[in-house]
Amino acid sequence: MKKLVNYCSIIFLLLVATSQVKAQSVDVVIRENGTERKESIDLPKSMTYPLDSLLNDWKAKNYIDLGKDCSTAKINPLFSDSVYIDRLSRIPAIMEMPYNDIVRKFIDMYAGRLRNQVSFMLSACNFYMPIFEEALDAYGLPLELRYLPIIESALNPSAISRAGASGLWQFMIGTGKIYGLESNSLVDDRRDPIKATWAAARYLKEMYAIYGDWNLVIAAYNCGPGTINKAIRRANGETDYWKIYNYLPKETRGYVPAFIAANYVMTYYCDHNICPMETNIPASTDTVQVNKNLHFEQIADLCNVPLDQVKSLNPQYKKMMIPGASKPYTLRLPIEAISNFIDKQDTIYAHRADELFRNRKTVAVKDITPATRKAATAVAGKGKLSYHTIKSGDTLSSIAGRYGVSVKDIQRWNGLSSTKIAAGKRLKIYK
Questions:
Q1: 307 membership: H or E segment, kind and range
Q2: What is the per-residue pLDDT for 200?
Q3: Where among 341, 356, 371 does a domain terminate?
Q4: What is the pLDDT of residues 194-249, one digit of tens each?
């Protein structure tokens, strides 16, 4: 056990928590045996996203039909604990999904006040689940982890936490860079559903190699391995999530129960009278390599692709510009626009380039030296030429006095514009 904690501590020096933010507490009504009671519950941040913000995503606005809300009803049927226990046990999962009062609260939350969000997320699954499942399968991870972004971002690719975590998987900048997600003023790979998903799968696999327990892994995903290690030490080395539960921060305690509840509601939504919003699957897309600076408006103007669609397909570019001049980058477009882009790419790169790319490569600086200031020119004097080697402590005045000439004469003979002289140099003296 000591070896486990020490190993985790070393890893923590490299990793920062993916999305540590304070939880929002709300009161929920618990219905049981014909009675009702209020209890406080700490919500994962995804539960605090209003439905309007989720629907602002371009994919949602264009492919989810809010007018065909099928048969989602306002009434959420009540079930006994034994029904929940049975249903959770029948989910085909590697990960342990036990039932208790805390899990029940989150099931009631998803199936109750968050019914509309669940309806939206069921539809958004059509966009993102194939991406999640491919990466998880490639790394040999439990497919039930595909519902982790429901807890992290409510499947909102534009989600940004108060702590600065970003994207579907809510990576912090530091952790993202460790896993190959570039972040700078123009590019943020944390917003790229594909790149971020593969980075998250690698992160989860490495965390499992440390803890060997999926509940601890996803808890560490929320608050960072350092916080989990501290809770393990305070619990006298216990590595069961439910035994260290009370030693965890409030914002993390609800994370695993919320994950179990998300798996439940995404499996048994029909039993709670929840129906997915109708979704039209987007057209196929493909990618091309960009080797020059390219602005989204150049693409929209000449490839007949709406600007909002270009932005939605390439969310990693923060300023609608691909800095291809620095290194090759990927551009994703509808498949029918790919050949159009390849055929016209020289024209596209040149289109409005001077207008859209204003940063200058070179800047000329004018010489502001007054025109009257000219370099002094040495002039030969009358008489015999001799040389004086300047010694430390010499001044033009002392040298002029020694040879019986004026300071101005010495300056004129040697092309000096000031009285500054340096030891070791020679001066012409005419006498």
A1: helix 307-313
A2: 98
A3: 356
A4: 999 999 999 999 999 999 999 999 999 999 999 999 999 999 999 999 999 999 99
Whether residues 296 and 273 fall in one domain: no
Cβ atoms 195, 166 nearer than 8 A? no
Identify whether 211 is part of a domain.
yes
Strands 24-32 and 35-43: antiparallel
Regarding whether 327 and 186 lie in a shared domain, the answer is no
CA distance 45 to 210: 26
Please give the residue range of the domain that contains residue 159. Answer: 41-279
Quick one: tokens of 421?
């002289």
Q: pLDDT digit string (tens) for 8-17?
A: 333 333 333 3
The answer on 226 and 116 residing in a single domain is yes
Q: Which of 32, 36, 152, 355 is catalytic?
A: 152
How far apart, in whole angstroms, are the C-alpha atoms of residue 223 and residue 225?
Answer: 7
CATH number, domain of 176, equals 1.10.530.10
Is residue 12 a part of any domain in this protein?
no
Radius of gyration of the chain (CA): 35
Please answer whether residues 332 and 313 qualify as being in contact, where contact means their C-beta atoms are separated by less than 8 angstroms.
Answer: yes
H or E segment to which residue 286 belongs: strand 285-290
Could you write out the DSSP letters of every residue in 136-158? HHHTT--GGGGGHHHHHHTT-TT
Query: Would you call 238 a catalytic residue per the annotation?
Result: no
Return the DSSP state at 112.
Answer: T
Q: Which two tokens stand for residue 129?
A: 């689940």
pLDDT tens-digit map of 348-385: 999 999 999 999 889 988 766 555 556 677 888 888 89
Distance, C-alpha 226 to centroid of its chain: 21
pLDDT > 90: what percent of the chain?
A: 66
Length of the chain: 431
Asked if residue 67 and residue 200 are part of one domain, the reply reads yes
Distance CA 395, CA 96 (A): 90
